[in-house]
Amino acid sequence: MMAFIVSTPEKLRYIRLLVPKDLSSKTLNVLQDLGVMHVETSGELSEEDREKLRSYAEKVRVFSNLVDAVENYYRFTVVDLKREVSLEDLDKILEELHVKLSKVRQEVENLINNKKKLADEVSECQKQIRVLEVIRRVVGYNLRVSELSFTGEALFSMVALGKSQDMEQLITSIPRDVVIKWGLIEDEMVVFVVGVSSALKEVQELLSKAKADIIKFPQQEVLIPDYLNYLSKHVEELRTTLARTDQELERVLEDNVELLALAKVINDLVKSRLDLLLSAASGEYLLAVEGWVPEESIKTVESRLSSEIGAYLIVNVSTDKKPPSKLKNPRILKPFELLTRFYGLPSPGEWDPTPILTYSFLVFFGLMMADAVYGLIIFLLVKYVLDRSGFIDNPYSPGYLTLKKMLLVLSLSATVFGVLSNTFAGYSVGFEEGRIVLTIASEGGGLISVPALINLSDPMFFLVLALVIGLVHINIGHVLSVIVGIKVRDLGRVLSGVGLIISEIFGIPYVLHEFLHYNLLPLSSEVYAFMLYASLVGVLVMIAGTVKSLGGVGLFMWIFNITGLLGDVLSYSRIAGLGIATYVMAVNFNKLSLGVYEYFSSLAPLVGSVLGLVLMLVVAIFMNMFNIVFGTIGGFVHSMRLCFVEFLPKWYDGNGREFTPFTLKIEKHIALGKMR
Predict the structure, then answer these.
(1) How many Cβ atoms sit within 10 Å of the Cβ of residue 649?
(2) Which one of 3.40.50.2300, 3.30.70.2750, 3.40.190.10, 3.40.640.10 gives the CATH number of domain 118-229?
(3) Can you spell out the DSSP letters for 147-199?
(4) Distance (Å, whole) CA 393 – CA 266
(5) Residue pLDDT, tens place only, 231-242
(6) Global pTM?
(7) Among the listed residues 519, 78, 34, 575, the one whose alpha carbon sits nearest the alpha carbon of residue 293
(8) Domain edges within the chain
């Protein structure tokens, strides 16, 4: 019975594996291929081994930095890795990739630098064109380019460009023996200054205060119009070269995308190997690797080591290290292990709550989205649309694939509860004079016999159902808490839990009979009166438990167990709230869509009917998709809240750590580049 509600993580054994140092590389390959050992840090290394390890770590660090540097040049994409990777050739592949990737990096950096130089040259030419156009307008056509920027013994000339508001002070402060011509380019001002050489320093200081750029022109004896023609042609040539450089850069990146994907995989593998080496202890002749292995995998490890290594020794080691948690659940429950990981993995000796979380989620989400059509649409959206929606960075990531499987199962739950409640996108399937017809769900008359317990059209029944589910769910948590208290020999916890359960068993029927005049059980008034005293006994047991746990303050804190129970159960009313909201919105969206059709069809029998039909479909699809998307999000979040806030804290700590085996895990789909 307990295995149906909770599961037990795999039993792990802490072992030390000893092998000759000359077989260490082959041993690591076997362990990485098996993927069953969670490696822990062990003893001290010799100085010689430390030096070797430092050298290898530096090689891995340099390679990792190289991979990151090249990846930064890529936009985000997912690459299918086609090449098979052999652990025997890992070091050789690492060396080859380092050489190839270094060449790629150098080539890409050269192209990017060329692009920058070309872009800067284009910008400078365009600036000169803008400036010369102004000078040609304010000075004339007959000026030569060499006359724009020179310094002689008697005279000087220069051209400057700056912001208009900064340059105004320059115009008013120019010395008398200096001539200035100026013109505007939008919010910038171009000035052409000619004067005696003795005034050059003063003019330069004024230009510096105005934050102006002095434009340098070549000493060419060509007229301004001819130089403008040259600049225009040169800009086009530069742009052509820039475009070719862009194409070459794209080609280089495209040609090496699989190389980078392979490099990312190798990078992860060598990092994993480095972590193991850092955790291993090396003697003069032996390599020792310590860690946790599932008991059922010990024979597999021994078999592989015997066939491929030969000389090895496995020693069982006593340790005070906290073992990791390796969850063990049936395949159908595996997707819901994600919920356990969200909350926290089991501590040593704790149960795994995945089974009860699975059942709870299926019931909660199913009732909140109890619509057969909605459930099927959620299934199709998750199966075929979500990957391509743009909301998922990497549709091949293990976490997303697990979440996707969980959502697919939850969508089927919504479909099942939709069938049981005879709700199909806000409609019910019914019979009318031997014909199958669609009616508004609240009107009943369904093809399927609908139990009153999940009749969505009756809010009171739905609310009662939600509260009953909450009461059962909360008390499962209290029962589990009592069992955990017995396991850890916590008498106060056991007495508090047992007392609360006794108070509920006898107190709830009494309160319903005495204050609401509702007989939960067909019993006489004398029996109900006896229940009052039995519930008070439960309260006394609960007080004893809280005093045992908290000391004297427990005489006052026990009341919060009862009020907390009431608050926890009422929290489950959200199941009814979201379920009714989803159902009511579906019904009203359908009525709104039909109203749109009836309105337009009444305006013009033919055209209005066609237009009304189109608009009806648009409104119906949009509104129902809105209901589905937000209903799904709400159902998921509130189901999680009921499990994580109301249920699990009563009996589950979740302070464990993940079992992370040293393994060869080569992804076939590699995410490259950065999100921009």
Answers:
(1) 13
(2) 3.30.70.2750
(3) GSSEE-SSEEEEEEEEEHHHHHHHHHH--TTEEEEEEEETTEEEEEEEEEGGG
(4) 22
(5) 899 999 999 999
(6) 0.72
(7) 34
(8) 118-229, 331-489+572-650
